[in-house]
Specification:
single chain, Cathepsin B, Chain A, eight-stranded mixed β-sheet, seven-stranded mixed β-sheet, 29 helices, hydrolase
């Protein structure tokens, strides 16, 4: 790499050297973003021009005069090279770079800022629009803390310090700034942004009560601080004076706060012992961080226990072996209640975890597997894809606690810690998706308990066609190959197989694949509608058509094109779609994008091209985009040298943007701009053999201006233009105004002059918002330059044309664009479905739909045509095709988990479908839907061989248990439901589960467990995950069942959980359960 120019590190680059320094520093910045904490020490060269903001009063933020460097590997490089604090930097450029900053991984010691998601989303969508002040107050609770229950992407976004500083320097920020530090994660090498720093309320345990108080002593710390620091803070607050060795901490359930306030910040020992959920003793050295001790919740109630004369005030089971907690006392009062009715304490927004765990815990065969200790015989601690057995061990201890002899809520802290070590997304206390947790847990248990010690490498053969018998054997081969690498209790119970079929629309080539599934995700039919207004610009002389259209809320831009094209009788393949704002295309819309991302105030245009048209793929430069994108001196030739020359189709369709060449400019910001934008964008289509004909291109553009203008013909426009020029000359005293030839574009001899623009970095097609003399080239000059056989064509997909008008001429022959963003004559048309929907809304007849699980299954198995942006490569045609794709259930497992896909997310919108979906409590019959069993039952009986041959050199074993699963009736009974109440901005998870010991339904709501009086209440619109068990006389579980039976036979009686040792336990497990230690699992 070429070294940067030598200069004083504290000085700013000069105008002459900035391009080279910018390229060099940005190249190093790119490396710094992708490396670890040991970055290049030379990256601190130069000083950042981005300075941290300072306060000017309680509610406003303004730039500071000076500040020290921070986050040097990112701040100094980006600040120096792009100088985004420069007001001349286009807002679009700033938005792209802030997004790049936001994608950088957080590193220890960095500072990130919380910003409102709505403000940030609106700004990134329309960066050129002046945004309102960034108001942080709605994100804050009283006291300036971040409000609880907020969701990233919905309520807030996180920006690193340099990105936030850049925004704060340009825009007004109101309210208290929310700076957050990056602290160590649970596992070594992990880091996380401390969104909610711990706020610890302190209570003195066992001391005599005092007069009631209104607040408790509070310590605000970082999760990266140590237990020793917290003890020092306790003494500083005057809670006690004991030294570190005579002071220990207890986690107190939140409900004890009221008792502590009533007693003046103290709580008695009897109250502590009677607590449910129980009190937990904090174990760990004084050097341990609060995060490692799980003392990092946003709000904590911590008891301070002081040792006096060698005795602690609060006696735990270790201190007084005969001590009986409330949990054990309750057990005697509920001697006839079945086991398994223990709740799970909410550790802070962990209801999503608790509900899934309760559903799994009540899975009869899985419960028996872990209670009998079969997991210790199958633990695979060497599996590189597993968790070293730690997740299975933690789950095992949790199940044993839930089904043990104790009572009261179990605290799943150890399990959560083990989970967060291997899945950082579940670290902290933010609300998560219960289905995502269940998927990770099942997959993690599978890998920890995988019976395959060394997975063989196998290449899956392709389906080459054949009879039904051949397909059955092919599916069996695919399953046996999967089992050769994956074999566990999770596979035995939860995994099935589906078939996917692709059919080429041209040659009818059929491609069939068989894949395993662990849960069945069913789409919920979305009966909601999207209603909007769009504008169609025909390619001929017809006026613009305003179309009101109604589509399903799940529709895409491709379906919008089809519907609108049918309404106005235009081939959808000729339509290009974009959002228009401020005389340019704010964004081009791809076929796969959902229509729900279109806002009610967005102006959507569909332009007809004279030939089939599609958005070109965004071209990636061969050099770093930073090396030329941020340069003021870039030219068309510079940009084109960074790319490979494109292929040119038979017809090139490109947008045309209009501006007044002699008016104040708003396109660029570095050198002289093209002028003031005006009018609306439109398309022209140029044949490949005509792109070197400047007159042809000019006539094609001029024809479009005639349709938008106030005069009927081009000749009339030329005459009016001549009169306007004469009027200007007369006003100037008969002589042209002086012109600077180096800085001013030549006066057009026709109506306008044309310039060709190259697309900006990473853009599919030019949008009309970033153009100047350097990034455009006069059409005639470009034709002359490329006439010598240059690889680049004159025009190509993604480029654009700019028409430069004299201000007086444009004002004389073209109308102004009104607030409706429509240029020229307009006709109106309404979609019949839009009219019908309007009538239904007026009559109030839009009722919630009646849906059933069968409707969701129909949606899952419905054949669909792939979109234009998701084409399939046909091996027969050797072309990408819009194939038809269909899913079918081939083999279903004994435990069928159904995921109702209620949540959906687009680019700017999210949605939850709260429709009531009727599902059977008993007798879910899938016989008509499991095509593998149908096909198998129609064939003569055939006993599979013990070995299935993959190829001439490889064979895999066949498990006869799989044949029994495949042949069994697919009829199921419900045994658990995971519910989600609320919307996207929060909500709460609970579970219904049928206890396998007494067959009754119970409602599990965190630490609360209540019987369900009427099983019909299990059905609700909150149902999210459904757990079904096959109805059969066959013993379920396959190999797992054999292991359980062998263990039971060896013992003659069921083996108590405590008799099985846990070889992976990092700390000894106490022999007796108590509320302060053993219930924390």
């Amino acid at each position: 790499m070429t070294a940067s120019p030598t200069r004083d590190p504290s000085s700013h680059p000069t105008d002459d050297e900035r391009p080279r320094a910018s390229t060099y520093l940005l190249d190093r910045f790119k490396r710094a973003r992708t490396t670890g904490s040991d970055t290049d020490a030379s990256s601190d060269a130069g000083s950042s021009t981005l300075r941290p903001p300072s306060r000017e009063g309680p509610d406003e933020m303004a730039p500071a005069r000076d500040a020290p460097r921070s986050d040097e590997s990112v701040d100094s490089l980006m600040g120096e090279s792009l100088r985004l604090d420069d007001a001349r930097t286009p807002a679009e450029t700033l938005a792209r770079e802030v997004e790049a900053w936001r994608a950088t991984p957080p590193r220890l010691g960095d500072t990130w800022y919380v910003v409102p998601a709505a403000w940030y989303r609106a700004w990134t969508e329309h960066p050129a629009r002046p945004p309102p002040p960034m108001d942080l107050a709605p994100l804050c609770a009283p006291g300036g803390q971040l409000r609880a229950g907020l969701l990233e992407g919905t309520d807030y976004e996180l920006l690193p310090k340099p990105a936030f500083d850049a925004l704060a320097m340009r825009y007004t920020v109101r309210g208290p700034t929310l700076a957050r530090h990056v602290v160590p994660g649970v596992a070594p090498g992990q880091s996380r942004i401390e969104l909610y720093p711990p706020r610890v309320e302190l209570v003195l345990c066992g001391a005599p009560p005092r007069a009631a108080c209104t607040a408790l002593p509070t310590a605000d710390l970082s999760a990266g601080e140590t237990l020793r620091a917290l003890k020092a803070r306790i003494r500083a607050l005057g809670v006690c004076t004991a030294g570190d060795d005579d002071l220990r901490l207890l986690r107190l359930p939140p409900h004890l706060r009221a008792a502590a306030l009533a007693s003046g910040g103290r709580v008695s020992v009897p109250v502590l012992c009677a607590s449910d959920p129980p009190v937990e003793l904090v174990h760990g050295s004084d050097a341990a961080t609060l995060a490692s001790l799980q003392l990092d919740a946003p709000t904590l109630l911590v008891g301070v226990d002081v040792r006096v004369d060698g005795a602690w005030q609060y006696p735990t089971a270790r201190d007084v072996p005969a001590h009986r907690t409330r949990s054990t006392t309750q057990a005697s009062g509920a001697a006839h209640a079945p086991r398994g009715l223990r709740g799970l304490a909410n550790l802070g927004n962990t209801c999503f975890m608790n509900s899934a765990l309760q559903c799994l815990s009540n899975t009869p065969e899985l419960r028996e597997y872990f209670l009998q200790g079969a997991q210790w015989d199958e633990l695979n601690a060497e599996n590189p894809l597993g968790m070293g057995g730690a997740l299975a061990a933690a789950y095992s201890r949790l199940v044993q606690a839930l089904w043990g002899s104790g009572s009261g809520a179990v605290v799943p802290r150890e399990f959560k810690t083990a989970l967060a070590r291997f899945a950082p997304q579940f670290m902290g206390y933010a609300q998560q998706d219960t289905q995502e947790l269940l998927a990770f847990l099942l997959d993690g248990l599978h890998e920890d308990l995988n019976r395959i010690q060394k997975k063989p490498y196998l290449e899956s053969p392709d389906w080459v066609g054949g009879s039904d018998a051949d397909m059955v054997r092919f599916a069996r081969l695919q399953w046996d190959m999967y089992k050769a690498r994956n074999d566990s209790v999770i596979v035995d119970l939860f995994q099935g197989q589906y078939r996917s079929t692709l059919v080429c629309p041209e040659c009818a080539k059929v491609s069939i694949k068989f894949d395993p599934f662990m849960y069945l995700t069913l789409p919920v039919p979305n009966t909601r509608k999207w209603r909007g207004r769009v504008y169609v610009v025909p390619s001929g002389a017809q006026p613009i058509v305003q179309v009101d259209v109604q589509l399903p809320a799940t529709a895409t831009i491709a379906q919008l094109r089809e519907r609108v094209g049918a309404l106005v009788h235009i081939d959808a393949a000729h339509l290009l779609v974009g959002e228009v704002w401020s005389h340019h295309v704010y964004r081009w819309l791809a076929s796969y994008e959902p229509v729900r991302d279109l806002g009610s105030d967005d102006t959507i245009y569909l332009w007809e091209a004279q030939a089939p048209v599609a958005l070109p793929r965004a071209r990636k430069p061969s050099a770093s985009r930073f090396s030329f994108f941020g340069r003021a001196e870039r030219t068309v030739e510079d940009i084109e040298r960074a790319y490979d020359a494109p292929e040119v189709p038979e017809h090139v369709t490109l947008p045309v943007f209009s501006c007044k060449a002699d008016a104040p400019g708003r396109f660029g910001s570095y050198r002289r701009t093209l002028g003031e934008p005006m009018g609306m964008p439109f398309l022209v289509t140029v044949p490949r053999d005509k792109m070197h004909d400047a007159a042809y291109v000019y006539e094609a553009v001029q024809a479009q201006y005639v349709r938008f203008g106030t005069l009927p013909t081009a000749e009339a426009m030329h005459a009016r233009a001549a009169a306007a020029r004469d009027a200007v000359r007369a006003a100037e005293g008969g002589a042209d105004a002086a012109e600077d030839g180096a800085d001013e574009a030549p006066r057009p001899t026709g109506l306008f002059a044309l310039r060709v623009a190259a697309p900006s970095a990473d853009e599919a097609m030019h949008r009309g918002d970033d153009a100047n003399d350097g990034t455009t080239e006069a059409l005639e000059a470009r034709i002359a330059r490329l006439a010598g056989g240059d690889a680049w064509p004159v025009l190509y997909p993604g480029s654009a044309l700019y028409a430069l008008w004299e201000g007086a001429v444009a004002d004389a022959v073209l109308p102004a664009v009104p607030a409706s963003h429509v240029w020229g004559a307009v006709t109106e048309q309404q979609d019949p479905e839009f009219v019908q929907g309007t009538a239904q809304l007026a009559a109030g007849r839009r009722r919630a739909p009646s849906l059933s699980l069968d409707d969701c299954l129909n949606e899952f198995t419905k054949a669909e045509q792939l979109s234009e942006d998701d084409l399939w490569y046909c091996p027969s045609c050797k072309e990408f095709r819009q194939a038809t794709k269909k899913f079918d259930l081939w083999k279903v497992p004994d435990m069928l988990v159904v995921h109702l896909k209620r949540f959906s997310a687009g680019r700017v919108s999210r949605d939850k479908l709260d429709h009531m979906i009727d599902f059977p409590l008993e007798g879910l019959d899938l016989r008509s839907r499991v095509v593998g069993r149908q096909m198998l039952s129609a064939l003569p009986d055939e006993v599979p061989a013990s070995q299935t041959r993959v190829n001439d050199a490889v064979s895999v074993a066949h498990d006869p248990h799989d044949d029994a699963v495949e042949a069994d009736l697919p009829v199921y009974d419900l045994y658990a439901v995971d519910n989600h109440f609320g919307g996207l901005g929060g909500g709460h998870y609970t579970a219904f589960a049928k206890n396998p010991l007494d067959g009754r339904w119970y409602n599990y709501d965190d630490s609360s467990v209540r019987p369900v009086s009427d099983p019909a209440t299990v059905k609700s619109s909150a149902a999210y995950l459904l757990f079904y068990r096959r109805r059969t006389a066959r013993a379920l579980g396959g190999k797992s069942r054999e292991i359980i039976d062998r263990l039971q036979a060896a013992q003659h009686t069921p083996m108590p959980p405590a008799t099985h040792s846990d070889p992976l336990s990092a700390a000894p497990t106490p022999a007796a359960y108590s509320s302060s230690s053993d219930d924390e699992v």
